[in-house]
Structures
1.
Amino acid sequence: MAPTIGVLALQGAFREHTAALEKLGATVCQVRLPEDLLGLDAIVIPGGESTTISMLLESSGTFEPLAELLTNGLPALGTCAGMILLAKEVLDGRPDQKCFAKIGIAVRRNAFGRQIASFETNLDIKNLAEPFPGVFIRAPGALILEPSVEVLSSVKLDSGEEVPVFCRQGNVLATSFHPELTDDLRLHKFFLEHL
Ligand code: GLN
């Protein structure tokens, strides 16, 4: 049977995630309220603005029930702002910004600087044969906090520093970039194959 994937639809690129998952045959439930969380096999947290999504999660009463499902092992994919929301620590977040702490990374918001705030680059991703088009928009960068976090892709800065941009810990995946803003379905497919 097709899996039912919740896409958090409070703000950001939720329509694009919905379209990508439906193209792959998944049933998608857009999540705006606690009752939308019933019966999900996984959740996707889109890119957008993490402070806004955090605020709307609180005001809709969805933060706590979603946090509980994630604690009980609900698989998750977070892209960009979604990566920030899944991270253990936000290094430069707003004081009232909450996150689910479900992947052992710290994130720096806008890690790629203001001048190169948005860019595209071909990424080598572990387990994918061909490069993946990485679309970065005011993207966060990850710092690995726990050894069980696997880095599936990283970007090399001019300084030589390697910034992880695709991380996985168990069934939680987080990308700095936006696979939903490309026609390439391989990352969503990878997610669905590892539920
Ligand atoms: N910088 C944004 C934030 O902090 C994320 C940007 C994005 O999702 N494209 O939420």
2.
Amino acid sequence: MTPDHGPLLYEGKAKRVFCTNEEERLLVEFKNDATAFNALKRAELKDKGRLNCQISARLFERLEEANIPNHYLGLSGENWMMVKRVEIIPLEVVIRNVAAGSLCRESPIALGTKLIPELLDIYYKDDTLADPLLTEARLEILDLLSSQQRIDLGNLALKVNQCLKPFFEELGLLLVDFKLELGVDYSGQLVVADEISPDTCRLWDLDISDANDRILDKDRFRKDLGGVIEAYGEIFKRVQGVCTKPRNYK
Ligand code: UDP
């Protein structure tokens, strides 16, 4: 069911963001579109929007319980979420517990290498530039963040990892890496925004050793492994087992 909403504010690859009758609230619709490799690869995956929305809602509620500020207010339908309006910082903040993906493509670090402590990589979010990896010096020149916000960003991302890594472990899942988008809310606070789902996290089944069979995230789509929705469904089933009912936004 589609909730009442105002005009479309923004449409991204996987979500649409709508205004509401309250200035400080936005409605996010999770779409079934899947994209990879800077949208060179595209598909429509039935039920992906609902699964990502439902998984994300539960993970945001976990963050909330851990006092980690985020934009989530509640669900407004199967694939709709009410969120706080924030100003998104154009960065992709990636935390890596285990080496995979671009880290292994762009360096000699082997797939599966444990990263202790976890690695924080910050990318500039711009499809036309293919989201380049930033250095601290480049980040400073870009002047997107105050020095305090730079410190807060790192601390926030680490806190999310400290919350979600053990949470997934209890569900038999290894949180390999994940991407966060951060925003600044009306009070100037840095908050976790966007989504946290198998589209934005790498999750491996801890009981499976085969390098492909263990994958339960968007890499199934990127690598043409099949069973994408089944994998997302498996993540949802496990997360739902411990977070039964996320709240509805009234
Ligand atoms: N990621 C994402 N959006 C992006 C790029 C990466 O959600 O535009 C996620 C990705 O799913 C993975 C983590 O961030 O969980 C690290 O991705 P990586 O840098 O390894 O890039 P990839 O191999 O996905 O291109």
3.
Amino acid sequence: MGADGLLYEGKAKKLFQTENPNVLRVEYKDEATAFNGEKMDEVAGKARLNNELSALFFAKMNAAGLPTHFIERTSSTEQLVKKTRILPLEVVVRNIVAGSLQRRTGIAEGRELTQPIVEYYYKDDELGDPLLNEDHIRLVEAATPPELKQMRELALQTNEALTAAVRAAGLLLVDFKLEFGLTEDGELVVSDEISPDTCRFWDEQTREKLDKDVYRYGLGELTDTYEQILERMGGSVS
Ligand code: TMP
Ligand code: ASP
């Protein structure tokens, strides 16, 4: 650990210790990456936008009674969260075909799914975050069967809460990625971040992409897009 309490530095965020052993401070970074870090840019203003948007979405989840690690936003680029042990899985929920589901199945982008699909990816950069099924998850011990069942239920409940929240702003929730952690008390909570880096949002009318795909595929200015999401969602609430 660094003298400043730095515990971990990732691509988009830094994690610091606080005086409270059960609370961490997250500092968002002005860094955009895609394709497992192959594409990387400093983007002024991204830290504030993702901090505000993540705080906004987590606050909506907390208000809906869904367990998250989020406590409060403390500055334009920082928020306090409960300390958790992150499970090494990325849980993706999909409502509309896009991204790797399109590539894996050959089904055209934009097909609405009759029911949401939940996928699990193993958080392992060297392996390239492979898709796992429930038997693989048991094999690598990424989560216990009861944890997996609870993650799936919470992911689907999050899908309902977030879909309703963004629909009111004229947006479709195409898909999103969640990470889960266990608190000191052993409670399973949604951790990490919820932002246009980790969700796909399309305009309901035009189906314009309003998320990190604009950066991944060079479709527009990332900060203009994220600012539009923040404005449509009514600005910061916490
Ligand atoms: P995918 O279609 O590339 O599998 O992405 C599904 C969703 O997960 C999409 O909303 C973007 C999000 N995602 C992340 O948050 N981090 C990642 O590393 C990847 C690959 C996807
Ligand atoms: N989050 C990953 C990266 O930063 C991949 C992505 O979102 O496309 O490299």
4.
Amino acid sequence: MSEAAMLNRHLAAAKPSATYRMIDRVAARRETGAKIISLSAGEPDFDTPAHICDAAVSAIRAGHTRYTQVAGLRPLREAVAAKFRNENGLEVSWQDTIVCSGGKQVIFNALAATLNEGDEVIVPAPYWVSYPEIVALCGASPIIVSCGEDAGFKLTPAALAAAISPRTRWVILNSPSNPTGAVYSRNELSALAEVLLAHPHVLVLSDDIYEHLIFDGAAFHTLAQVEPRLALRTLTMNGVSKAYSMTGWRIGFGTGPRWLLEAMEKLQGQQTSGACSISQHAALAALTGPQNFIETSRGIFEQRRNLAVRMLNETPGMSCRIPGGAFYAFAACAGLIGRTTPAGTLLETDEDVAIALLEECNVAVVHGSAFGLGPYIRFAYALDTDTLLNACESIRRFVDRLTA
Ligand code: GLU
């Protein structure tokens, strides 16, 4: 038997995470001494606030270093429930929550707990790279619905209605969006909810991980709040990674119908068990401690967005919509396709552009096709202003030197 044949067929067919591939590539280039500016990994560049780190150290010293309940420590689940009640207006008690090892595990648990061969999951594109792969790993089919720039990169009610079939099990919503930064308004969510109300067999995964990174004074809305009649078939997912600069701590959480949470807990109990006990104590401090970090970092990201988008739009061959949230700029790069780099590489795809930017300009980005829409480039502008300025200037110089 070949080595490939020994693999699970869904895993064998799956693509590796495009974001992690670029993160690994950057690390490999840095090991050779290259000075890379990375706009590839989608994570805040700030340190985790000190009071959160202190809570983790105290947890270690107090001996909170053992297994926890699979679905999370009771005080953390109570804090998560309070967050969903206070910030999102959801009627949630601690039993309606689950804590997982990162938002990714919330998503994986939910899909693995519910999907069978032949099932379909509607994934609006551009999408975060892992949604369709997780669906396929569970043996189901991602139904990709293209949401182009003219639709603001957002799913319209008509496109949703057209994509729903008797086999649809889930639709995935992500606002603010990775990779486009698009934000759904209350009215837009209401209109999607109207469609969903007519299809009671469809569950909704609302990935709200960028909730607090929203700009221009806009308000955040989540589907289960906008349409409470959908609450019993919506999994609302969030975590501490983006709001409190805690990506490495790996704490995500969700709320949804109890039958689903129980199934997710059963699955998690056979897999990773409870999330890291120390991280859970840190997450508790994050949710219950001072919240000013959120507004401070939001303001900084808004300034960075303004800078990055302005500079990208000043770069010939690129154009970028103003993203309403998250920390991504998703720029069209059609004007660079077909041109040749100073090193002699013909840029045929957006992946070629991303690779050339890394190899010839020492700036790491992720190509849009990995998110289901090309030719685009995703810039994660989670860097200080000077570094961001340097990156944008290098890109500009690189583009100026392309030949027809
Ligand atoms: N969510 C981040 C990104 O899109 C982290 C990497 C990942 O899990 O894909 O860059």
